[in-house]
Amino acid sequence: MKCPFCQHEEIHVLDTRVSEEGDAIRRRRRCGKCDKRFTTYERIELVMPFVVKKNGSRTEYAAAKLRGSLTLALRKRPVAAASLDMAVQAIEEKLLTSGKREVDTHYIGELVMQELKRLDKVAYIRFASVYKNFEDLAEFQDAIEEVGQAPKT
User: Which stretches are zinc fingers (unnamed) (predicted)?
Assistant: First the structure.
């Protein structure tokens, strides 16, 4: 590792701790040449599956796209940011534990709908209307009835 200030390669570790969340190792380091200090973090690198789009093309998983979809559906709804974070984390965990190297957008859409149904019924209907491409009022009514019959969690 090189010093971020002077690019010198002689770096000393001063202190090592586990982060408060327990998901990283925090190391305080000092450069042997310029004597400046800096912090590094070591985290597990998890490989998310590739996403297969409807047209068959493959792309890397993008957490920002997932968060953006959820945020758009939850716009102006009384859902805390922490709940949104937990929903994203739950979806990503399901993707990782699926063991698949590739997942299609339909699978991700279904995971999003599960989380939205749990978080906010109105956001679920918003997302479902676009995701399922509702054509008429009857499809909205069916979705509303489906949400109304869901057990409360």
Answer: 3-34
